[in-house]
Design goal:
Layout lengths: L7 E4 L9 H11 L3 E4 L9 H9 L4 E4 L2 E2 L5 H14 L4 E6 L3 H7 L7 H16 L26 E4 L3 H10 L2 E5 L6 H14 L8 E9 L5 H15 L2 H9 L3 H12 L3 H6 L3 H7 L1 E2 L2 H14 L3 E6 L6 H14 L3
Parallel strand pairs: 1-2, 1-10, 2-3, 3-5, 4-5, 5-6, 6-7, 7-8, 8-9, 8-10
Length: about 325
């Protein structure tokens, strides 16, 4: 890590298509965004936008935030990472995480079990392959899979983490940690676990990068913004891994009414049960000055790379798209 201040943007932008990436990426670099990170939920996959961005950008660092250790095998992860690194030499970061029970089990039919072990083994095997070695299924075994053309230089591997076990794993084996959906006040708590993992492994904790993804809307605190934020949070608050995380950082009382209504099958009541306090703790929404101050709070708390994921409460799609592009400009570094 050098001393450059880094500032990220999630690609592709919400409500934008891959064919529009050229204008978005070029403008983002001109505005001073240093990083472009993809996401992978129910939209596009995590690698395709980065291949587009590689061809359209000049210097931005490109990373997955994140792809799952459960839904892709380590050989496929290694091949995809090698392709991105070849498309953008020295600019690609492979971000791996466990994802959630819904995505892994309900959508992909894969058992979601022992997530820390799954991520640990994915990182170990992928690193073997990217180093040009034969990738073994078990530590100490003779390897089988081997990349035809491994990258000439190591590809950084980051781990997405929520609670202590995964956070410590990131400190132990990863080049960086990716965090999200937490207030600035909780950042020192999670980074303390990363530090413990690094120190236990004999590594320098300060050498580990810290990326935080932020859902952000600077259209003001309106009823439309509040509703959009509630829909975003509903997916996460009701996921068991995020529920456990939010309880761990002390948000049990705030999420209990939401979960009670959700589990009773009353989705509307669950949305209405999301208090402004909960929303403002986990999502950045307000006017432009408020959003800038909030991002700065995360940086002051220990985040090295704030990565914006702009959203909008505007119903009209063309207007929503325009507003999101304006947010990218207004919140540029």
């Amino acid at each position: 890590m050098n001393g450059e201040r880094r500032y990220g943007l999630t690609v592709p932008l919400h409500a934008h298509r891959l064919g529009e990436m050229g204008a978005v990426v070029r403008e983002a670099e001109e505005l001073g965004y240093t990083d472009l990170w993809s996401a992978e939920t129910s939209g596009l996959d995590g690698f395709s936008p980065l291949i587009h961005a590689a061809a359209l950008s000049q210097r931005a660092r490109l990373g997955t935030a994140i792809v799952s250790s459960f839904t892709r095998g380590p050989a496929l992860l290694a091949m995809s990472a090698a392709a991105c690194e070849e498309a953008a030499p020295g600019r690609f970061v492979l971000g791996i995480g466990s994802s959630t029970e819904v995505i892994v089990e309900r959508w992909n039919g894969v058992r979601f079990q022992r997530p820390v072990s799954s991520v640990r083994e994915a990182v170990r095997r992928v690193r073997q392959a990217l180093a040009g070695e034969r990738m073994s299924l078990h530590d100490g075994e003779k390897g089988a899979f081997k990349l035809d053309a491994a990258p000439p230089k190591p590809v950084p591997v980051y781990i997405a983490a929520l609670r202590a076990g995964m956070l410590r794993l990131a400190g132990e084996v990863a080049d960086g940690v990716i965090i999200n959906f937490l207030p600035p006040s909780a950042v020192p708590t999670v980074l303390a676990e990363v530090r413990r993992g690094a120190e236990t492994a004999g590594r320098d904790p300060d050498a580990i990068d810290v990326v935080a993804r932020h859902m952000v809307c600077d259209e003001g605190w309106t009823d439309e913004t509040r509703l959009a934020a509630r829909f975003i949070l509903a997916v996460y608050v009701t996921a068991p891994v995020y529920e456990s995380f939010l309880r761990w950082i002390g948000f049990g009382e705030l999420i209990d009414p939401v979960l009670a209504a959700w589990r009773a099958g009353d989705r509307r009541a669950a949305l209405e049960a999301m208090s402004d306090e909960l929303i403002h703790a986990l999502i950045i929404a307000g006017d432009t000055e408020y959003c800038r101050r909030r991002v700065a709070e995360y940086v002051d708390a220990g985040v090295r790379v704030p990565c914006l994921a702009p959203f909008s409460g505007i119903a009209d799609v063309p207007e929503r798209r325009r507003s999101i592009r304006d947010t990218v400009r207004r919140l540029a570094p």
